[in-house]
Amino acid sequence: MKSLLFLNPTKDRYNEIKANLSAQNDLNINKITDRIVMKYLSLRCTTDEIRARQQIFRALETDSFKNGMHMVKEKINLLSAASIAYTNSSNEVERIFNAKRLCLAYIDASRTILKIEKGFLLTDRLVSDIENKSANIKAIEKAEADSRAAFKTVTDFRLTFDYETKVTKNNIHIESMAVRLRKSAYELDFGDGTAKREMSLGVSEQLSAALLRLYPDEMRELSVFKDKLVALVDAELLIFEEELNFYFGILELCERAKEHGINITIPELTDEKQFIAESAYDATLIYKNEYNIVPNGLFFYPDKGVYFLTGANGGGKTTYLRSAAVNLIFALTGCPVFGKGIKFWAFDGVFAHFPSDERFTDSGRLLEEKKRVDEILAKTTSRSFVFLNETFSGTDGVKGTALAIETAKTLAEKGAFLLYITHFHEVADSELPMLHTEIDAGCANKRTYKIVPGDGSRRSYAADILKKYNLTKQKLIERFGDRSEA
Fold it and tell me: Is the distance from CB of 406 to CB of 399 less than 8 angstroms?
């Protein structure tokens, strides 16, 4: 099995696509890219595969490599179309002509692949594989050349008529059979009796049978051509249609992100368990056509890998979660990311839970959320990263806080990383690390959309509220007087 994405491609790697696509939908990735990109973003990569893909994406930054790969993509697309046409052929003549189209497309694609710049692990493997099949390619080329005379004979057939026989009935002239045939030929666009239509598609059963009778020797020769040479076409090349669409789909998304002022970079894969960034953007906001998207830092280390995130509504909490989760998913699949100074570790899984849009009773929603969280907990390991957005928010504060803290501590004990958005500010009493939305000191009602580390206590959140409404110590003294001596 060949691949431009995997060093060890196997069908077993596709087993968890559905679950991972659910997380991507929660994160709005489905709103900024297509099905093919999402499919491959959902499949895990080894560290070697991440580095190999990063090689390709770096090379695609150069016009020469990008143009060469784009040409390969076009040739593979033509090969795919030819393969579909051959498979859908309805009779022997169509199969013969579509076989020729398929063989020529395979030769063209192979020759184009051999021109790819060398020095990259994934593409070098492909070039080497094509080189190893040079004997098959030459055999197809020779057979195609040898069959041209037979193809020419069949495609150059003419409808000719040597005489007209006039027929009358009751003294009324009736068109001769020859005249009627001429009209039929003209209506079929044969014009002047010459077959001008390409015979690879749309050949009727009647015409196919006629050609087989008219040219038995040539058609036998072409049938042998078809049966022998189609078997030499390497159908596994067709997998590259999707894989190349993935690469160019990511490039297209990156170009759109740049238009919205978002920095694009190849992240650094590290041996240290961490996920950090100088700045990270929520690229999913471009589907809303938003500009001036505010970036944020990421601060996940082994000693601080589990965070609660609290703060005022509309302050950017969910945007922050998406900026972290989306960038991590892209990084773990060897893709460019949206930000600067991003470093990441090879986590083996990314899990997300967002509140369901379905209508439940409070008890029904709580049971559904507990079920989904339990499923996530069962799958997580010390190499997992979990993103929870207002999980358990449908229940009362006491119960919701207790469940949130219990979930966070369970993941912390496993060694997993976690970002948990919650409006239960009492989670600060858990002594787990805290993040919170920053309030603009100069304007009480203005959101900065910046997320900053807290001190792990409710006091830090209270201080933000006081700052938001300009209730500093000096302002309180001015309003109520200094009562410290009272």
Answer: no
pLDDT of residue 82: 94
Shared-domain flag, residues 342 and 249? no
Residue linked to tokens 């894969």: 269
As a whole-number percent, the residues of the chain with pLDDT over 90 amount to 63
- Angle of helix 121-132 relative to helix 134-146, nearest 10 degrees? 50
Residue at 45: amino acid letter: C
CATH code, domain with 458: 3.40.50.300
| 7 or 200, which is more confident | 7
Q: What does the alpha-carbon distance between residue 403 and residue 251 come to, in Å, rounded to a whole number? A: 41
Instruction: Read off the amino acid at residue 57.
Output: F
- Domain presence at residue 162: no
Among the three residues 214, 237, 259, which one is the final residue of a domain in this structure?
Answer: 259
Q: Residue 317 in contact with residue 447, Cβ under 8 Å?
A: no
How many C-beta atoms surround the C-beta of residue 100 within 10 A? 23
Which domain does 409 fall in, by range?
A: 263-480
116 shares its domain with 239: yes
In this predicted structure, what is the pLDDT of residue 447? 75
Listed residue (143, 150, 154) closest to 104, CA to CA: 143
Amino acid identity at 121: L
In b/e form, how buried is each residue of 17-48, taking b as 16+ CB within 10 angstroms? eeebbbbbebbbbbebbeebbbbbbbbbbeee
Q: Is 273 exposed, middle or buried (0-12, 13-18, 19+ CB in 10 A)?
A: middle
Whole-number Å distance between alpha carbons of 218 and 101: 18
The helix/strand/coil state of 149 is helix
DSSP 8-state assignment for residue 310: E
Q: Which of 113-127, 171-185, 391-405, 415-429 has the lowest mean pLDDT?
A: 171-185
Torsion angle, CA of 263/269/273/275, rounded to 10 degrees?
10
List the structure tokens of 97. 């002509």
* Residues 133-140, mean pLDDT to the nearest whole number: 94
Lowest mean pLDDT among 68-82, 425-439, 446-460: 446-460
Same domain? 397 vs 283 = yes
Q: Is the pLDDT at 198 greater than 90, yes or no?
A: no
Where b means 16+ CB within 10 Å and e means fewer, 435-470 reads bbbbbeeeeeeebbbbbbebebebebbebbeeebee
**One domain for residues 220 and 270:** no
Confidence of residue 361 (pLDDT cuts 50, 70, 90): low
